[in-house]
Amino acid sequence: MALESNPGRPAAPGPAREAAPAIKGGQEAGWPQTVRRLAGKYTIWLVLLVMIAIGAVSSDVFLRPTNLLNVLRQVSNLGFLSVGMTFVILTAGIDLSVGSIIGLTSIVVAMLMPHGAWLAIPVGLAAGMGIGCLSGLGVTLGRMPPFIVTLGMLSIGRGLALFISQGQVIEFESGFFEFLGGGRIGGVIPFPPLVFLAVVGLAAFVSRNTVFGRNVYAVGANEEAARLSGVNVGRVKMMVYLISGTLSALGGLFYASLLSVGNPTGGSGSELDAIAAVVIGGTSLFGGSGTMSGTLAGVLIMGVINNVLNLNNISPYVQQLAKGAIILAAVYIDYRRKGK
Amino acid sequence: MAGITRLFPGVRALDRVDFDLRAGEVHALVGENGAGKSTLMNILGGVIQPTQGKVKIDGRTTAIQSPLQAKRLGISFIHQELMLAESVPAVENILLGNLPAGPLGIINWKAAKAKAKEILGRLGVELDLTCPVQELSIAKRQMIEIAKAMAFKARIFIFDEPSSFLNQEEQEVLFRLIGSLRSEGGAVVYISHRLEEVFQIADRVTVLKDGQPMGCLPTDQVDREMLIRLMTGRELKEFYPSKEGRSPGEAALKVEDLSWQGKVEGVDFQVREGEILGIYGLVGSGRTELAKLIFGRHRCDRGRIMIQGREVKAASPREGIAAGVAYVPEDRRREGLVLGLSVLDNTNLVQANLASRSLFTRIKKRDERSRTNDLIARLAIRTPGAGQAVGLLSGGNQQKVVLAKWLNGLDSKVLIFDEPTRGVDVGAKSQIYRIMDGLAREGRALILISSELPEVIGLADRILVMGQGRIVEECRGRVTEEEILACALRGM
């Protein structure tokens, strides 16, 4: 877009509009334009609504509260990964290690649970943080591309999980720990989605209202300008990988708790689901733009797709296909909207 | 081009503009940022379509629907930011989309090289064809861009601020090239903020102001003052603020024997409070490296930096800022601003990072907003609001946002301005000078790094000339451009 096309309006420092839509003049914005603008801003939520509508039409079970709560419970794990992934992608990075952290954490928890949950839970979390920390160091001190660093960490995490478990699924028993992944508050509302929503809310607050949040966007959009503005770029990057590792470990805890097993191959491939959810949510893979609420929508869309396909008894092979196609379609629509 | 009108939502970017271009002429297009120069040329280049009006080429009305079509019509747009495939050798860039190939699509490299050489020969340029473009200087890359246009048999050449990144010598080469394009019958549009250049090279000049044509005149019938009056609609008698009454005090910054990687060699100087020190040097003279050393972006190999008598060993810009240094970088789009973020976010980036002890401190949004709006008013930044993305502002207003960032609640002792008016229109230039003068009068120490001689002479109390990483000469009092140039050349 030509830079000189900027509106030559008087310099009246009027009330600032939050996230003023880019080129739009807004003066002759009548009804239709307002609708279009809102539609543009909330495309992804419209897509979610369409998915829900399809679900409701194709299956009479879909809209039942138990099913909807079930969808929420199922997406929570993906949700943790996606929130961390959003931070990383906002800095123009990527974290491929998140799925392997689920496996590693679940194994660590399963092996330590006989000694007590007080030991198992913190050490499990620490394992994920450790992987995140190493990724961060590789990207900052090692100055390697995030894709390569976290690909390495993916393999290391998975390898570690397989090594310490000798490739075995480890079952364990625990009383209250099961509540984490499987519990329901008042016997109705599943616990994991509550934690997930709290995490999304916190992440949205952090990304919008803290210095760290602003730095994340600045580093992703223009690293050198951020550095020359006094942003500690290394610390910001370190932090996002640490957050991603920690949230992945949290996902691992819920995974282990729900199934009461440690599985060294648990969470395989979920890094790609997380990236898909983040991108569907409108976050740019080039960094610097995106929102947590978008990621929330992306995660829900992924969950609804899975659920609707399951309810309609579609073969898992076809499911894979359909999921890919739907993801591409959702992102295509969103990019077209924004390109305008 | 006749009666061209282009509307953007809420703005009339061009209002019934006529523009004609003859074969074998250089036609300059001038105007302040936002006057509509780029919009007009984007229409000619097929990037956007006019809302009203016609474009005629060789007397035939033509609708230019896309940049590709423009190219086929022989219109070539050489942008300020060059568009080359950086990692690919020169020969391929010149013949991009034009490589001579056999029936199977196999490239005939011999013919390709010969063709590229032939084109460069017509321009009177020699360079290593096999060298990846990124290893060449900006001037050479620009030549490749011109050669590329010629390979497409372009007849109309649009140059958008081509000299922004060139030094004196390179600029002369560019002018020679443009001269040869003209003598081959090409038609050249030349957009520039540097009016001196317009007089040097153009046959005619068209002035735009707020999307309206202010006239088209042969260059030998206008002078500088008249052009400025047409562009801004006002007289610019006092372009540079008076230096009267500035009274430098104690030394604010002292640099001793500063050296870094052969690019800066044993530099000694000091700047006093309330003083503007000019550093004149060409690109590659080490001036930007020197600024970044003081700011903490690079760490010096040898030497000392002292601010208000205390030695500073800044290992990062963050520490440099904490020590009281501010830096307005040379390349504002790459280093000065986060273009995708809003005016508000950019203005508060430094302040927020310096003020908060913990990264997770909650930002006081209301304070930020009121400070930002104050700065928008104080610096007369033309923006629809603090929420506007800076990338959508014009060059001059972008630069003011960079200034706003450094004036936002910081108490910087030393402010370094590296080419503060590059690509900035005349009106904004004089505003920036006034802001700088005001800062000096507040008792801050300013360093002005520039390759525009009139600016250094007009603004600085003292001038250092830099060449090959060293301070070659110090000039005080009244000096002429010729004297300084002579010093600079001696240093090369």
How would you describe this structure to a colleague?
The complex is a heterodimer of chains A (340) and B (492). Chain A is mostly helical and 340 residues long. Chain A has a single domain, classed as ABC transporter involved in vitamin B12 uptake, BtuC (Orthogonal Bundle), CATH 1.10.3470. Chain A is built from 14 helices and 4 strands. Chain A has helices at 31-41, 43-58, 65-90, 98-112, 117-140, 146-165, 177-182, 191-209, 211-221, 223-228, 233-259, 270-280, 292-311, 316-339, and strands spanning 170-171, 184-185, 189-190, 261-262. A two-stranded antiparallel ribbon of chain A has the order 1-4. In chain A, a hairpin with a 3-residue loop joins strand 2 (184-185) and strand 3 (189-190). In chain A, helix 3 packs across helix 12 (270-280), helix 4 packs parallel to helix 6 (146-165) and helix 8 (191-209) packs across helix 9. Chain A is globular. Chain A starts with 30 loop residues before the first helix and ends with a helix. With 492 residues, chain B is α/β, with parallel strands linked by helices. Chain B folds into 2 domains: 2-232, Rossmann fold (3-Layer(aba) Sandwich), CATH 3.40.50.300; 251-490, P-loop containing nucleotide triphosphate hydrolases (Rossmann fold), CATH 3.40.50. Chain B has helices at residues 37-44, 67-72, 90-94, 109-123, 138-151, 168-183, 195-201, 224-232, 287-295, 317-322, 332-336, 343-355, 365-378, 395-407, 426-441, 453-459, 481-490; strands at residues 2-8, 11-17, 26-30, 52-54, 56-57, 60-61, 75-78, 156-160, 187-191, 204-209, 212-218, 251-260, 264-272, 276-280, 302-307, 310-311, 325-328, 414-418, 445-450, 462-467, 470-476. In chain B, strands 7-8-9-3-10-11 form a 6-stranded mixed sheet, sandwiched between helices. Chain B has a 6-stranded mixed sheet with strand order 17-18-19-14-20-21, sandwiched between helices. In chain B, helix 15 (426-441) links the parallel strand 18 (414-418) and strand 19. The longest helix of chain B is centred in the middle third of the chain and has 16 residues, at 168-183. The two termini of chain B are 46 Å apart. The relative contact order of chain B is 0.11. At the A-B interface, helix 9, helix 10 and helix 11 of A face helix 1, helix 10, helix 11, helix 12 and helix 13 of B.
